[in-house]
């Protein structure tokens, strides 16, 4: 069924159809009977204890899909064990000029250059607070992916992460420091050891003062050089980091089935989907070889249970989908968990 729906959806602008489809789902989810039917059909359990949290299943939705925490009820109905909202910045921003999201169907991939478009931390925190109050018995874990505003200079970036951390603290279950998006100028420079040390030192100081500290993870790019990977692993011994999300999108365009002219016409942005699968899995294996105890959420090119198993075998405890959700549809979590439950 979804293959037919996808043919229709793929006739329209990717960003517009994204919001159209999610708003349509939100309309139907206003009715309790619809929410119950969706959960009965899509929700599958495969419990995992990680980060001091109980995940009903290990399949999450990566940041960037529900940037503003607007569709949490709907995503819970589709069976996600956790959803990562954001990337959230202190001040709301429009992001980059449209069009900024592109499909590469021949590669089962997407290119995006969204640019951290979001409503800003105050509005998103308020929305999360209301959702928590209206859904006190939810089993879905919510992560907060935080970043810096485009206009904030890198030397002051830690202040943006600090602001988002403090304002979201009461409403999310874990945090992710995003310094690896290719779509905010200069952001990836924050992946160097000194910058990360500053950011995590500040966040850990605040976290330590809380009655119940929250896990803080780091999301890294698949394009890191070996020296950068070594620096990040070494950083775990110097400043507390609870884990890594491996990985964000890639700026690499090699070995694509899509024509070079089409790729060049699309231009800059982060590539996600099947072309990232091997790169992210290899990076997970590399990190685990350097430090076996590092906690990892695997992301990149996960479309089915086989892909999920590859990430788990490489060293992930949890996984996130995004592009796979677009191509496979609302049944992706159910299909992955059904495969896991077979063994």
List the helices and strands and how they pair.
Elements: H1 2-9, H2 14-28, H3 32-42, E1 48-50, E2 53-55, E3 59-61, H4 72-77, E4 82-88, E5 101-104, E6 109-112, H5 121-134, E7 141-146, H6 157-168, E8 174-178, H7 193-208, E9 216-220, H8 226-238, E10 243-246, H9 260-266, E11 270-273, H10 274-290, E12 296-299, H11 305-314, E13 318-321, H12 323-328, H13 332-341
Parallel strand pairs: 3-4, 3-13, 4-7, 7-8, 8-9, 9-10, 10-12, 12-13
Antiparallel strand pairs: 1-2, 5-6, 6-11
Helix pairs in contact: 5-6, 6-7, 10-11, 11-13
Write up what this structure looks like:
It contains 13 helices and 13 strands. Helix 6 (157-168) packs parallel to helix 7. The chain has a single domain (2-341), classed as Aldolase class I (TIM Barrel), CATH 3.20.20. 42% of the residues lie in helices and 16% in strands. The mean pLDDT is 97. The protein has an 8-stranded parallel β-barrel, surrounded by 5 helices. It has a 3-stranded antiparallel sheet with strand order 5-6-11. A two-stranded antiparallel ribbon has the order 1-2. With 343 residues, the chain is an alpha/beta fold.
Sum up the structure in keywords:
13 strands; alpha/beta; globular; 343 residues; 16% strand; 13 helices; 8-stranded parallel barrel; TIM Barrel; single chain; 3-stranded antiparallel sheet
């Amino acid at each position: 069924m979804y293959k037919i729906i996808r043919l229709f959806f793929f006739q329209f602008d990717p960003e517009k159809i994204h919001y159209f489809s999610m708003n349509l789902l939100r309309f139907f989810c206003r009715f309790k009977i619809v929410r119950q039917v969706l959960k009965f059909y899509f929700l599958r359990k495969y419990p995992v204890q990680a980060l001091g949290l109980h995940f009903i299943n290990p399949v999450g939705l990566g940041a960037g899909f529900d940037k503003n925490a607007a569709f949490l009820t709907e995503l819970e109905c589709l069976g996600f064990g956790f959803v990562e909202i954001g990337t959230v910045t202190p001040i709301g921003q429009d992001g980059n000029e449209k069009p900024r999201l592109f499909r590469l169907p021949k590669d089962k991939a997407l290119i995006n250059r969204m640019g951290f478009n979001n409503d800003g931390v105050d509005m998103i925190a308020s929305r999360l607070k209301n959702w928590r109050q209206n859904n006190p018995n939810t089993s879905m874990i919510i992560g907060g992916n935080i970043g810096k505003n485009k206009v904030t200079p890198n030397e002051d970036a830690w202040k943006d992460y600090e602001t988002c951390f403090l304002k979201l603290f009461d409403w999310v279950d874990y945090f992710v420091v995003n310094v690896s998006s290719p779509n905010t100028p200069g952001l990836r420079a924050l992946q160097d050891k000194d910058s990360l040390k500053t950011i995590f030192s500040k966040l850990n100081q605040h976290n330590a003062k809380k009655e119940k500290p929250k896990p803080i993870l780091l999301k890294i790019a698949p394009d890191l050089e070996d020296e950068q990977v070594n620096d990040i692993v070494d950083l775990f011994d110097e400043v507390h980091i609870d884990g890594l999300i491996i990985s964000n999108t890639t700026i690499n365009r090699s070995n694509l089935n899509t024509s070079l002219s089409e790729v060049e016409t699309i231009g800059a942005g982060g590539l996600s989907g099947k072309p990232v699968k091997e790169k992210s899995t290899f990076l997970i294996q590399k990190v685990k070889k350097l430090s076996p105890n590092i906690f990892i959420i695997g992301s990149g090119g996960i479309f089915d249970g086989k892909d999920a198993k590859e990430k788990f075998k490489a060293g992930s405890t949890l996984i996130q989908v995004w592009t796979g959700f677009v191509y496979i549809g609302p049944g992706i979590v159910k299909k992955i968990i059904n495969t896991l439950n077979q063994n």
